[in-house]
């Protein structure tokens, strides 16, 4: 698994993310791009969005694909909020579970490294995912976007995430993802450190950045679905 350098195309500026590869199946990357546009609109000059600024109404049409992470250790985060798509992929309630529970054993080190880069860079991370399928599921692929957020105290310890993946089906077996590619790039916030120590088996990207998050203290968003559930 490797880090990919920031990429641009003739029609995109250097600050835009270029999809790592087009989906080979039938899902759109639109939820990722919509979430990022919302997050960017909240970024202030040299500052990340605060989690308390995130209003579910601003992400109303992609709530099913969204989630909020809370950092609990340098390479560990847990789910605070999660949309229906994630529930369908895992076949279980993910609130309170560690982020690495989504991944196969062989990918958990890479998942932890991605978290570390998001919070310590801070960085925006885009992951290309695959999974082998299982009973009631076919093998598939997906994309995940992690956007760093800060608390009202200024700590970068929250992240707004979006996942879009194939493989939803009736199965008691959760999808366990592998990470095949990872794109890290600077977020429009405070300057990132010039370098980070290289971890075994993980390439250090040339650039890194930070984002911000969802309002935790907000009243639950009205409506049946899509919806997010708050961890008590």
The gist of it:
It comes from Pseudodonghicola xiamenensis. This protein is α+β, with helices and mostly antiparallel strands. The chain contains three helices and seven strands, in the order E-H-E-E-H-H-E-E-E-E.
Structural write-up:
This protein has a domain of 162 residues: Beta-Lactamase, CATH 3.30.450.20. The protein contains three helices and seven strands, in the order βαββααββββ. The chain has a seven-stranded mixed beta sheet. It starts with a strand and ends in a 46-residue tail after the last strand. About 26% of the residues have low confidence.
* Second-tier CATH architecture of the domain at 25-186: 2-Layer Sandwich
* Gross geometry: globular
**SS class:** alpha+beta
CATH topology of the domain at 25-186: Beta-Lactamase
Uncertain stretches: 4-26, 191-227
Strand content: 15-25%
Q: Using DSSP, what is the number of strands?
A: 7
List the helices and strands and how they pair.
Elements: E1 3-4, H1 30-42, E2 66-73, E3 76-82, H2 84-90, H3 108-120, E4 123-131, E5 140-149, E6 158-165, E7 178-186
Parallel strand pairs: 1-7
Antiparallel strand pairs: 2-3, 2-6, 4-5, 4-7, 5-6
Region (Disordered): 1-20
Protein name: PAS domain-containing protein
Pfam families: PAS_5
Key terms for this structure?
PAS domain-containing protein, Beta-Lactamase, alpha+beta, 3 helices, 7-stranded mixed beta sheet, globular, DUF1457, 232 residues, single chain
């Amino acid at each position: 698994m490797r880090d990919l350098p920031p990429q641009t195309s003739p029609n995109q500026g250097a600050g835009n993310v270029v999809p790592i590869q087009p989906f080979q199946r039938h899902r759109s990357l639109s939820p990722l791009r919509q979430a990022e546009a919302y997050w960017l609109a909240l970024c202030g000059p040299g500052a990340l969005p605060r989690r308390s600024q995130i209003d579910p109404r601003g992400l109303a049409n992609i709530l099913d694909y969204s989630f909020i992470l809370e950092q609990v250790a340098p390479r560990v985060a847990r789910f605070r909020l999660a949309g229906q798509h994630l529930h369908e992929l895992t076949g279980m309630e993910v609130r309170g579970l560690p982020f690495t529970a989504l991944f196969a054993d062989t990918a958990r080190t890479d998942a932890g490294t991605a978290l570390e880069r998001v919070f310590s860079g801070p960085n925006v991370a885009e992951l290309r995912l695959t999974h082998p399928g299982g009973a009631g599921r076919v093998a598939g692929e997906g994309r995940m976007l992690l956007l760093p957020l800060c608390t009202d105290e200024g700590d970068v310890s929250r992240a707004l995430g979006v996942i879009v993946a194939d493989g939803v089906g009736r199965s008691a077996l959760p999808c366990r993802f592998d990470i095949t590619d990872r794109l890290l790039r600077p977020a429009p916030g405070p300057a990132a450190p010039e370098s980070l120590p290289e971890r075994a088996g993980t390439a250090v990207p040339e650039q890194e950045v930070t984002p911000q998050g969802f309002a935790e203290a907000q009243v639950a968003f009205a409506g049946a679905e899509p919806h997010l559930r708050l961890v008590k």
